[in-house]
Every structure is written in C-alpha cells, then in structure tokens.
Amino acid sequence: MKSKVRNLQQLPVYKIAYLAIRFFTKERVVNQASALTYSTLLAIVPIMAVIFAIARGFGYNRYIELWFRDAFSSQPQVAEVIIGFVNSYLVHTKSGIFLGVGLIFMLYTVMLLVNHIEIAFNEIWQVKRKRSIFRTVTDYFAMFFLFPIFIVISTGLSLFLATMADSMTDFLLLGSFVRKLIDMSPYILMSLLFIGLYVFMPNTHVKVKNAIIPGILSGIAMQLVQFFYIHSQMWVTGYNAIYGSFAALPMFMLWVQISWTICLFGAELTYTSQNLDYYVYNGRTEDISHRYQLMLSALLMSIVCRRFADGRRGPTAEELRQSSGIPIRVVYDLLYQLQEARLLIEITPDEKGDESRYLPAESLDNLSVGVMVDRLEAQGRWQLNLPVANLLTDEWVRAVVQRNAYLRQARDIRLESLYKGE
Q1: Is residue 245 domain-shared with residue 270, that is, in the same domain?
Q2: pTM to 2 decimals?
Q3: What is the pLDDT of residues 221-254, one digit of tens each?
Q4: Are residues 181 and 103 in the same domain?
Q5: Which of 195, 283, 304, 361 shows its CA 20 to 30 Å from the CA of 109?
Q6: Domain region containing 167
Q7: From CA 158, how far away is CA 139, in angstroms rounded?
C-alpha cells in the first residue's frame, strides 16, 4: 500500500494537488478568504458604481443592470439593494453632493480590497516585499479601470453573439456553434479573468503556462458554485421563512467566501505548479536550527559576493537555488532576512516579468562571516529593560569577551572566499 502511495506521489498532477491542498490547509488560507469577504462587502458598491458609470458611457448600462440582476437572480433583494446604492451614489456624484468624501471613500475601499488580495497572493508565493508606491498606484488604478471595461466589453460581446445566433436560424450548423459558444462564454471569460489575476497580482514573476490550468479549473468551479447558488434556493425556503429578507445577506456572504476560497486555492495550484521541481523540502524556514540558518545564509552571501567580485550580474533567487541546492522557499526567506540585516540589496526591474537580482549592500572588504553573524543575531526591534547590573558576574563578562573574540576572528574570513565559483 505504501509503495502505491509513493508511486502516486511521483505523478505531477497528483503531486501538485497534494502539495496545494497541504499548503492550503497548513497556511490557513480560508482565514484570508474571510478577510477578503469583508473587504468585498465594503468595496462592492464603489466597484459597481464604476462599472455602471463606464457602461453608461458605452451605452450598455441597461444590459449591465440586466446582467447583474441575472447573476443575482437567486437573491433579488441583494441585487435590488446594491443597484439602489449604486444609482444613489451616481446621482449624488453627478450633482456634486459629497463628491470629495464619496470619492475618497470609494478609492479607499477599492484600494483596501486590492491590497488585501495582493497580501494574500504574496503570502502564497512567499513574497515578503510589497509593490513600491509608484507601482501600487499605477497597477491598482489600472486594475480599477480595466476590470469594469472588461465586464462591459464581455457583456457587449455576449449580446453581439446572441444577436448573431438569432440571425443565423437558417444556418443550423453555424447557429448551433454560436449558441454553444454563448453557453461557454461565461466559463471562458471567468477563466481568463482568473488567469490574469494569478499572473498579475503576485509581486513576483509568474509564468503564464503555470496559471492556465489553475485559471480554467477556478473558472469552471466558480460557474458551478454560481449554478448551485442559484438553484439551491429551493432548499432554503425555511431559512428565508425564519430570517425573511435578511436571509439574503448571510447567503451572499457565504457565496463570496466560497468564491474567494476557490480563487486562493487556484493561486496555490499556480504556485505549486511553477515550483513543483523544488519541493525536496516542504518545511518552513522557522523549523531550521539557528546554526544551520547561519550556514545557509553564509552560502547564499558567498555566491552573491563571488559573482560580484567576478564582475558578473547579480543572481536571481532561482539562480541561487540552482547554485546552492537550497529549496526555493527557504531561499526567499533567507534573502529577506539578509536584506533586513543590510547585507544584501534587491535590484527590482522595471518590467514585472523580469526577476529581481541581488547584490552586496556594501564593499566586499567589509562583508565577512563575523559581520554577517553579528548583524543577523542583532536583528529585532524590541528590547527589555533588564536589571543588568544585578545579573552581571565575572563568568558573564568572560562569556561576552569570548564571543567578541570569536566575532573578531570570524571577521578575517571574507564571505566571497567561501564559494569557489562556477
């Protein structure tokens, strides 16, 4: 039996699914889905206001409203309330009432939602560094305006295909193909939306080929959840009888929660698929002993310093993994610690598709084993005011002197000399 399980784990599909489920449950991604559900409730009215405003500019506002009501056909109370809020918001904005405060609140709620999405995706991808202020503003505003345009164009395309299908009743084969294409369009559009989200949202390089299958699976799962959500209302008649119109709110929140869970699990699948070959070690960096972390940090520093001394480009995280054999998850964690200790600097390219490279933070003459150990051990901001005078003894002083002597001796060992080169 064990041999069969071991053979199954050698299969890429099984291994991807196994690791994705393992990390999904281990990292408590469901809690992140709950936080995103709350942010979605705050941002849904401003987002829909922008979608309706852009749709009015294209002349599609009536079709967008029909699409929205159809999406919430199982909960007409929710659709009615949201559309009422959106129309009220647009009327007040058009008349200039509360324009400044309303605009600030709209931008804040949308930015908060997108920021929470980025944090959740970065945690899945083990990315410690957030976007710069400039990239945050440009990327978030690009999504803020492109997403409504995507909804409007997709709705217009569906209407165009529906019109074509009606006009092709005499062409049985072509008309049947167009109608099947219309039936498949929600799955296709939802899959494209997830693929773009998985590639664009993490603040790291994500290969498109690794996001295609997770995006398609997430898109299909979302449509199935939507189908179940609409047709399951006949089972909750008693629930509606107890809570009345208030039942729409918990049902809507449950749907949003499940939707975000599907989205984040797809992100886990994308991450696992891209890093499948590097999962020789599945633990956390915190599980490694402090001594061994120092050894691994010294190895990474030596590779970076040696390449810099040879006049070569700074290595990427993937190149460091290949040269050192350290698992990629551990490489990212150690690189972040070395940056916090002011031993390395990260050179971020302008293009998101390019990977960051790492260089020594100062002259190689100053980077030694002693300096690295001293800085890594000195990291931390919280200090306790202990009664040191009552604790110090002769043996304590002796221990401090010996440690300082050890660090002085280690300063003679330059980090670049630890690695023989490639």
Answers
A1: yes
A2: 0.68
A3: 888 887 776 666 555 555 555 555 556 677 778 8
A4: yes
A5: 195
A6: 11-278
A7: 28
